[in-house]
Amino acid sequence: MKKATKWDVSEYLATDEDMAAYLNAALEDGDTSVIAAALGDIARAKGMTQLSKETGVTRDGLYKALSPTGNPSFDTVQKVVRAFGLKLDVTTA
After folding, report:
1. How far apart are CA 58 and CA 60, in angstroms?
2. CB of 36 within 8 A of CB of 66?
3. Which phi and psi angles does 48 have, rounded to 5°?
4. pTM (2 decimals)?
């Protein structure tokens, strides 16, 4: 019997462009749990310890807030997005 290996998207987010495209796709989906999970995936790809230092949010707090069941405050989202070197942009639909 073959065992399936666990697939983790954070292993494939190698460039800032990959991360921006991934986050944009999550934002287009509009589901807040998808957006939080995407931010968490990017955070793991970048390194949660470094992100914690840059945002002033604890690692545990980041893991909790950026999970699919998390509910990050807008302040946390802004800190995380800025730490990624990205920005949120609004356009007309």
Report:
1. 5
2. yes
3. -65, -35
4. 0.84
| 3-class SS of residue 37 | helix
Measured CA to CA, the distance from residue 91 to residue 78 in angstroms comes to 18
First-residue to last-residue Cα distance in the chain: 49
pLDDT of residue 83: 93
How far is 64 from 30, CA to CA, in rounded Å?
20
Q: Is the pLDDT of residue 68 over 90?
A: no
- Cα–Cα separations (whole angstroms), residue 14 to 22, 46, 81, 93: 11, 9, 16, 29
User: What is the C-alpha to C-alpha distance for residues 29 and 33, in angstroms, rounded to an integer?
Assistant: 10
